[in-house]
Amino acid sequence: MGLRGSPTVDTLVAFAVVFVFQQVTVLFELALGLGQLYQTLFVLGAPVTLRPWTVFTSVYAHAGVGHLVSNTIALVLVGFVLERYTTRWRFHAFFLVTGALAGLSQVWFGGLLNGLVGGPVVGSAVLGASGAVLALYGYVLGGNRLTTTIANRLNVGPALEWLLALTIAAILTWMTASPGVALIAHFTGILLGLAAGRLDALQPPPNTHTDQRNASYK
Fold this sequence. Notes:
This protein is an all-alpha fold. Helix content is 67%, strand content 0%. It has a single domain (3-214), classed as Rhomboid-like (Rhomboid-like fold), CATH 1.20.1540.
């Protein structure tokens, strides 16, 4: 799969295009006094039904240059490897769906937690690709040959396997923790990736063309 057909490159281009639109939106807000235009277009928050498009636009939007660069580096490190074992459109669908679900989990569970404790303990609005990017890492971790071999030899049941997945997701989420980070989205993305890896969700049908040099991924 060359760079022209690379879903990782596609995603990086989407990052850049959306980021440019974000900056243009900020300028429009300042020049025309459009108020909440930026939030309306890019920030996923409650109630979701008020701005349903942000379920998807928020996945490719970023809060600043540092946020963009960190997610770009993380995507490059895993994307070019994983894309060789799947198809272009499966990669995109996986990235978008896991990113959207991670964002929704931050909004819904974050809002629920804040309501239970009576204060803003965690963020209940989100933007950024980290949930989707971490889902790719979770997929690699859950779907590689070593993980499969170990799980088969230990012959663990579904309950224990899910417990291990939750533990791994919690540890990796803790490792990404810092102020302002959407930890619920990170946890959800990793967990979704682990589950998808165990299910071979990115594995194309037998007759689908992929890079044969990597057919032994799982």
